[in-house]
Write a sequence for this structure.
């Protein structure tokens, strides 16, 4: 499954166009490698996504073409969530 579609279907990112933009900006990594929107995702892969002030690391558990909101969280396991604070010049 394409990375942008996985991010949208799993509801990690709300819209596929936003998922594509985030991926193409170099803010998503698959197994430690830079990933583009067209990269292939498979079960067992670890994704790290940078959202502004935080990063989320998840493991892909299953791939489904469509899912309901309640079932979307079953597609991945949250491994780590980190906060990034900007250093201010004092």
């Amino acid at each position: 499954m394409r990375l942008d579609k996985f991010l949208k279907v799993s509801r990690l990112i709300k819209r596929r166009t936003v998922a594509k933009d985030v991926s193409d900006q170099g803010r998503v990594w698959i197994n430690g490698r830079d990933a583009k929107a067209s990269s292939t995702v498979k079960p067992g892969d670890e994704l790290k996504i940078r959202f502004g002030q935080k990063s989320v690391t998840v493991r892909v558990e299953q791939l489904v073409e469509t899912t309901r909101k309640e079932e979307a969280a079953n597609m991945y396991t949250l491994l780590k969530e980190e906060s990034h604070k900007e250093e201010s010049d004092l």
Remarks:
- The radius of gyration is 13 Å.
- Residues 3-83 form a domain with the Structural Genomics Hypothetical 15.5 Kd Protein In mrcA-pckA Intergenic Region; Chain A fold (CATH 3.10.290.10).
